[in-house]
């Protein structure tokens, strides 16, 4: 659990699940001169060490970009770093930074960001998947399409990056698909309504519900009740 002097408190949790490698990663960095913070969560593409490495590179690079430059600049920096890395790994990524009155978010792939008002969650991101592509065109996708991403850190063009802004929420939730494709949004909100539930409760619930993927969550909140949040700190993911 971490706190800014005049900013959000946040906590993270992750679990490898039944996979052989934990290819999720999350990071946060507070600029000591400004107090501004940047959050990032990545999900490596595949169950391999190269995917985990790409996710770690992406989040560690993204959070070093000043919040004043915005999450789009942070994601662009992460892309340059992943493309310059050896090994060919790839990942999907969501980057968020709080500002006076809310949060700004940029993403590629099927990681998600939700605004939290203390009672319910509102999804800010839209999955970049083959399933969403067909839904947007009035077709019913096959279940396997839910896991086929159409953008990633290594491959996305500038115009394909998603952007969103939430004004006025008490908090922000970032999740990998091992959480939000197992738990419904209402189930996640129900867990978060019960103090001191947070990131760890979501990860535990996803695995208990039969999740077959890495599960990772980052919860940030301005609400004064959050210091009681029980989570597992996670600077970056590590292989099994």
From TrEMBL:
Keywords: Hydrolase. The keyword Zinc does not apply. Residues 9-222 form the PPM-type phosphatase domain. Its EC number is 3.1.3.16. InterPro entries: PPM-type-like_dom_sf, PPM-type_phosphatase-like_dom. PROSITE patterns: PPM_2. It comes from the Bacteria. GO terms for molecular function: protein serine/threonine phosphatase activity. It is an enzyme of class 3 (hydrolase). This is Protein phosphatase. It comes from Amycolatopsis endophytica.
């Amino acid at each position: 659990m971490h706190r800014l002097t005049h900013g959000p408190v946040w906590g993270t949790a992750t679990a490898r699940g039944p996979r052989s490698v934990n290819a999720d990663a999350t990071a946060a960095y507070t600029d000591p001169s400004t107090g501004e913070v940047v959050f990032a969560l990545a999900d490596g593409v595949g169950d391999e060490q190269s995917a985990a490495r790409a996710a770690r590179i992406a989040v560690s690079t993204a959070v070093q970009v000043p919040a004043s430059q915005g999450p789009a600049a942070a994601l662009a920096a992460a892309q340059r770093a992943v493309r310059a890395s050896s090994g060919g790994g790839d990942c999907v990524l969501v980057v968020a930074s709080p500002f006076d009155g809310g949060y700004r978010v940029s993403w590629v792939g099927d990681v998600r960001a939700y605004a939290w008002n203390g009672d319910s969650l509102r999804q800010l991101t839209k999955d970049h998947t083959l399933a969403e592509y067909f839904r947007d065109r009035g077709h019913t996708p096959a279940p396997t399409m839910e896991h086929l991403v159409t953008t990633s850190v290594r491959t996305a063009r500038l115009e394909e990056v998603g952007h969103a802004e939430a004004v006025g929420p008490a908090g922000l939730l970032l999740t990998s698909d091992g959480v939000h494709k197992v738990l419904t949004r209402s189930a996640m909100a129900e867990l978060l309504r019960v103090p001191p539930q947070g990131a760890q409760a979501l990860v535990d619930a996803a695995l208990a519900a039969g999740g077959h993927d890495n599960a990772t969550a980052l919860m940030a909140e301005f609400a004064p009740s959050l210091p009681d949040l029980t989570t597992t700190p996670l600077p970056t993911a590590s292989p099994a």
